[in-house]
Design goal:
Length: 461
């Protein structure tokens, strides 16, 4: 991350001068410095030096009002003579690394036409100048893009002007493999490729082709109960699959930053004395899924330390939405309650009502994923609401919203119990909030209301 330092001393000016003298290209073409006239520092408010780690990489102007003042940050050896900056002052114009800024005289209609045809957009104007910007699109690859989280993350990244690539798993019903992202696909907003976490060649192939800046590893066999039925498959996909991806990135796209979808299921029944789970809570998983996720979590930390790879573990607690698979308890209960209220179903077969979970909304949680990859240093972060409810609370709230008493409709069914249950989850997200400024928009209640309304609308009400 680029650091900004205001020029305050003679020493700073000397540092700037020596960089300009020594830079191989770029600033030599910059009009003021051709003459080595450093009085311009005061006159035109060239007031900042920029550092990447400890190296001074450029200087910048922050005065956009005055004509003839260059905008943004000029990197010493990255300047091409027209205001090109590899690094730009983000706060100034909402720019990202790699964006190109330039200024064009307002009466130079030919230049204006050329830059427009090169996709530069006017972002500001002064009396005599247009300030134009061309964004370098950041490329993201999302494994499991058709999952609940993948679909919300894809929308978030598109809104941030990313070039979005995703992997889908082949299914004999082709509608199924892109059901949550049909709109995005049909409007040409995402690029899809077949790949499977267990098939490393497919991962190498897409990584070589895309060379993504950011990789979000969301693909998994993600159902805890099913992981008891298919433990080896779950370990292969949810555990070793992550290692396949890390090796593929290490081989063909080592610059990529990686988000790993770790899970609160990794904690098992360990709880800190204050009743919460957090980054430091010991991990004692109680399901094949949890064990596979612990392997992935650890191998990510290992690759981060051993190879300096840029990998973040997001330890996310349960998050739901209308797009949640209906074999997870929230959407199962909401869908059934709506159907019962409409006379379409009589009973709801359910498992352990006493288990409690910290349920948030997937839309809020994908923001946390993105924030992690924008942070300076790879790290591990818990994402949770800090509020816990039992499955019974969930049933009570949902049925009563529809004017029903859940007790009249539920049937306890052994089939839905797990051989070993994770009883309580409640997460502490202080680190995520303090370090990265994450905020949660939804509560348990507003999330369930959205889900209830979704199913009512689905059934035409
Ligand atoms: P999800 O809805 O089950 O989505 C998982 C995605 O992975 C699906 O698109 C699935 O494709 C794909 N997938 C499954 N096996 C694959 C394989 N072998 N190769 C490639 N892709 C494969 O899960 P989610 O709720 O979006 O969760 C996203 C990630 O976060 C998962 O890793 C999950 O374990 C983790 N997580 C979720 C939560 C939560 O509460 N939602 C909490 C913590 C962590 P198909 O649909 O075609 O099978
Ligand atoms: O179960 C109980 C069940 O399947 C929640 C995944 O996204 O979050 C999810 O895993 C609780 C459990 O989610 C039924 O026993 C009762 O205690 O909705 P779930 P999960 O197992 O917590 C974690 C964080 C992940 O990482 C996972 O990928 O509800 N429960 N009766 C039931 N659960 C289900 N599914 N169905 C029932 O009938």
């Amino acid at each position: 991350m680029l650091k900004q330092k205001k020029i305050t001393s003679e020493e700073d000016i000397e540092l700037l001068k020596s960089h300009i003298e020594n830079s191989s290209k770029g600033t030599k073409t910059f009009r003021y410095f051709e003459k080595r006239d450093f009085s311009v520092l005061q006159k035109h408010k060239i007031t900042f030096l920029y550092f990447n780690n400890d190296e001074c990489v450029g200087y910048g102007h922050l005065d956009t009002e005055e004509d003839n003042v260059w905008l943004g940050v000029i990197v010493f050896d990255g300047h091409n003579g027209m205001g090109y900056g590899k690094y730009i002052v983000k706060s100034l114009t909402n720019c990202y690394d790699g964006d190109i800024l330039l200024s064009v005289d307002k009466d130079n209609s030919i230049a204006l036409k050329i830059y427009k045809s090169l996709s530069f957009k006017i972002i500001k104007e002064t009396e005599k100048l247009y300030i134009m910007k061309k964004s370098k699109k950041i490329k993201a690859l999302v494994t499991g893009i058709n999952g609940q989280d993948g679909s919300y993350l894809a929308e978030l990244l598109i809104n941030k002007n990313y070039e979005v690539w995703g992997t889908v798993k082949r299914n004999s019903v082709s509608e199924t493999q892109s059901s949550r992202i049909e709109n995005l696909r049909d409007n040409g907003l995402i690029n899809l490729e077949y790949a499977d976490l267990t098939d490393m060649a497919s991962l190498i192939s897409i990584l070589s082709k895309v060379q993504p800046d950011e990789v979000y590893n969301l693909a998994a066999q993600s159902h805890v109960r099913v992981s008891f039925d298919q433990p080896i498959y779950t370990a292969n996909v949810t555990g070793v699959g992550t290692l396949n991806l890390l090796e593929a990135v290490r081989m063909v796209s080592p610059h990529s930053k990686i988000y790993q979808a770790s899970s609160s299921e990794m904690f098992g029944n360990t709880i800190d004395e204050d009743g919460y789970q957090r980054e430091t809570t010991p991990m004692n998983p109680v399901s094949p899924y949890g064990c596979a996720k612990v392997f992935s979590y650890n191998i990510c930390r290992n690759y981060r330390n051993a190879y300096g790879m840029k990998i973040w573990n997001g330890i996310l607690f349960n998050h739901e939405s209308p797009r949640r698979g209906t074999n997870f308890v929230t959407n199962k209960v909401v869908k059934a309650a709506v159907r019962i209220s409409l006379g379409l179903q009589e009973k709801l077969h359910i498992g352990n009502l006493d288990a409690s979970r910290d349920w948030g909304h997937a839309k809020d949680y994908v923001v946390a994923m993105w924030l992690m990859l924008q942070s300076e240093k790879p790290n591990d972060y818990v994402c949770a609401t800090g509020v816990s409810h039992t499955v019974r609370d969930l049933c009570e709230y949902t049925f009563s919203k529809l004017g029903l008493d859940y007790k009249d409709y539920i049937v306890i069914d052994k089939k839905h119990f797990r051989p070993e249950e994770l009883e309580n989850l409640k997460g502490d997200s202080s680190k995520l909030k303090n370090d990265l400024g994450w905020v949660q928009e939804y509560t348990f209640e507003t999330m369930l209301d959205e889900m209830i309304n979704y199913w009512l609308k689905y059934y035409g009400k």
